[in-house]
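// run 5 | inverse folding | seed 20
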């Protein structure tokens, strides 16, 4: 008996599977029944963190070893968790080299000032001899005047060097730029630091001047009004909800998450136990409620008749003309033609067919 080739059997089996799949696959299996979501509700919840208004990592623009470390009012060396006030010394670099530069610059300035004083006296004397006594040629007076001009220029340059040296000596003492709390210490007494590249020594943050940073979906951006929109902040560190106005809206949208940032200033007298990094939740009261809705991009039909969506009616796919707005990360805004809560069909374009029967799976019993 002649045997059937294996490859011929496999081919028959393959086409049989395709036929069975075609018969069993339900038409419209890629379609979804979705609900048109309102763009903005009267209230929205958001989460975020407490952040300091100012936070800075301090080093020194100069290079040298730390010879003195700042202390608090009781004489204890400054460390993490301690508070400091604006202008308080935090640490000091070795100053001998910078004092020498100041002394040298002062000596050069003094020398040129004395020289200028002598030349200025010569200028007056030669001016009298030329203009009154007429015993000296004009050329000699011009030479003295030129010397005076050159000495003044040299003096101006060395005075600038002296001022620079004095600034360097002053900046060997690094002071707190604002009232705050030391949150991190990277270096200590005896460590060598430099300004290029900058070596960080301390991290200082504001303790009382805090903000809540909340993130909201981009669709709410036009609804949030700084100074008017109110946020009710909640946290385990608060005894109750803290109602505060929105301080500002950051005009940028995260391209990945489709969110924007809202900042809420927390008054020092109301912060209770809040510290930088605390997790907070907020309920935001909106000024207006939008009538626009949001639908998936795959629900929109664009053809010669305009833009539309298909809605399920009487077991069929019925065309509904709509007016579109902006395209967002999470979908497309429909400005007119749909109401919040209405059902629309979303799926591949080849399955969205006007007048086609609605798949059984998408019918509501």
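// decoded
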């Amino acid at each position: 008996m002649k045997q059937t080739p294996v490859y011929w059997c496999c081919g028959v089996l393959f086409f049989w599977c395709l036929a069975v799949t075609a018969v069993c696959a339900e038409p419209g299996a890629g379609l979804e029944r979705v609900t048109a979501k309102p763009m903005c509700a009267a209230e929205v919840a958001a989460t975020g963190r407490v952040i300091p208004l100012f936070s800075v990592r301090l080093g020194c623009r100069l290079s040298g070893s730390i010879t003195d470390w700042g202390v608090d009012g009781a004489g204890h060396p400054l460390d993490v968790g301690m508070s400091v006030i604006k202008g308080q010394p935090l640490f000091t670099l070795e100053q001998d080299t910078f004092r020498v530069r100041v002394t040298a610059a002062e000596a050069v300035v003094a020398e040129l000032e004395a020289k200028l004083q002598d030349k200025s006296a010569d200028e007056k004397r030669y001016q009298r001899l030329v203009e009154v006594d007429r015993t000296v040629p004009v050329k000699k007076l011009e030479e003295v005047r030129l010397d005076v001009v050159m000495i003044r220029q040299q003096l101006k340059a060395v005075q600038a060097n002296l001022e620079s040296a004095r600034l360097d000596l002053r900046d060997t003492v690094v002071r707190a730029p604002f009232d705050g709390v030391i949150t991190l210490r990277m270096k200590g007494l005896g460590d060598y630091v430099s300004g290029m590249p900058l070596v960080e020594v301390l991290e200082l943050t504001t303790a009382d001047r805090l903000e809540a940073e909340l993130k909201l979906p981009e669709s709410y951006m036009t609804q949030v009004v700084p100074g008017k929109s109110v946020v009710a902040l909640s946290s385990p560190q608060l005894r109750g909800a803290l109602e505060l106005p929105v301080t500002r809206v950051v005009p940028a949208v995260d391209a990945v998450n489709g969110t924007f940032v809202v900042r809420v200033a927390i008054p020092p007298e109301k912060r209770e136990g809040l510290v930088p990094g605390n997790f907070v939740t907020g309920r935001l009261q909106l000024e207006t409620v939008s009538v626009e809705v949001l639908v998936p991009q795959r629900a929109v039909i664009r053809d010669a008749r305009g833009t539309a969506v298909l809605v399920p009616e009487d077991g069929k796919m019925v065309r509904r003309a709509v007016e579109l707005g902006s395209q967002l990360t999470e979908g497309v805004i429909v400005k007119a033609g749909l109401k919040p809560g209405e059902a629309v069909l979303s799926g591949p374009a080849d399955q969205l067919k006007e007048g086609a029967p609605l798949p059984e799976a998408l019918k509501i019993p």
